[in-house]
Design a protein that fits this description.
Blueprint (H helix, E strand, L loop, with lengths): L1 H26 L3 E10 L2 E12 L9 E10 L6 E5 L10 H6 L2 E5 L19 H16 L6 E6 L1 H12 L6 E5 L11 H6 L5 H16 L1 H7 L2 H4 L9 H18 L14 H12 L8 H4 L3 H5 L1 H4 L37 H14 L4 E5 L18 E5 L14 H15 L10
Parallel strand pairs: 4-5, 4-6, 6-7, 8-9
Antiparallel strand pairs: 1-2, 2-3, 3-5
Helix pairs in contact: 3-4, 6-9
Length: 430
Amino acid sequence: MAITVLLTFSFVYAQDDEVSVDNTLHTLKDIRVISKTVNYEPYSLEYSLAIRQPIDHSDTTKGFFYQQFRLLHRGFSKPMVMETEGYDGREPHSELQKILDANDIDVEFRYFNQSKPNPLDWRYANFEQAVADLHHINQVFHALYHSKWISTGISRGGETTITYRYFYPDDVDASVPYVAPMPNDIEDKRIYAFLDTAGGATCVKKIRNVQTFLLQHEQEALAKIPVPEKNLHYTFVGGVGQAYEYMVMEYPFSFWQISMLTEKDIPTNNNLDSCLAHIYKIFGSYISTFADEENERFIPHSYMTYQTGYYKYNIAPFKNYLHCLTGANPTAAPLPPSIARMPYDPDFEKKINAWIAKSGNNILYIYGGRDTWSACKAEFGNGVNAQRFIIPGMNHYYARIRTMPPSMQQQFGDALYAMTGLHADFSKLQ
């Protein structure tokens, strides 16, 4: 009987709360409700929303566009996790949302997927405008959710988390960027230092031998690549031959960043089929990673590297074997010929990195011990209360709170509590 009464009360509460959220969303200025999903056990409301954003936040006469985001509502009195994406939006169910039983807002980055002005004006694809988008959303929803706010993001989304905090330090109480690269140049040399040492000298030599072998047998390899891959378009990089050489140059970066392969998985038999199979294990393809069809959706990211910095491919050790990539080291962020690359602005990332070092308080950084991007991790001094958690053996995809050793999880939970007063329940990640 008591259980029945409790369930009835919970259901009635959920219905009342749902009506309240529905009514509130429809009164919010600039907000469109696209769709809604309701779950009663456990209770949650999930909305697909769009917000009217200025193309230029400093001059609204330039026009507006609608930016898409998702809201997971668990209760007005619960904390809010704000997921700052670097690309398309995704489901608002972050680790922090789970361990804090929090609400969650996941924001698609401007110029990606459905969040595009029409026509596209690339002058406004920059981080100043993107974080102003986040600030606008924050201000609209801060009026509804009065508990603690935490921003978080993964990879480029983590870089967004940090940059957002730099421009709007009072919007949230704490920030948790995952695997966030903070380059110090358009050709961050720390990447080369990482790749020259990762796994030890023997492993480095094995990887370089595979690269050399693949370049020495380029024409034979191209003949083995499936026709559907070769029939894709490769104007961003210059052609099929360039795509193949890009793949060979990218291989060590991705070996450590996105695979969990180890030294014993690197072929040493000088067999082309073995080497190509090894490449396929990492990329899930041979050369299509560099096809226009794959890179089309990353154009805003590649364009914005003039602000954020990035990495290039050191072709010097392979110049005797390259047929297509000549001259200066090529960028790992190719653009279509129709879009002019902006000159690199070193001051943008320099000022953010300087702020991280001296004033970036209440930030918990998470990195993977084997992830190539850990070479470009955020650096800070003793004068700030930030903490960094480098998870042993984890790559870009697996460096998460759930993969932390128990002692590191406890340290993370203690740090998060010290910054927000919120208790984390790590059992929710099982």
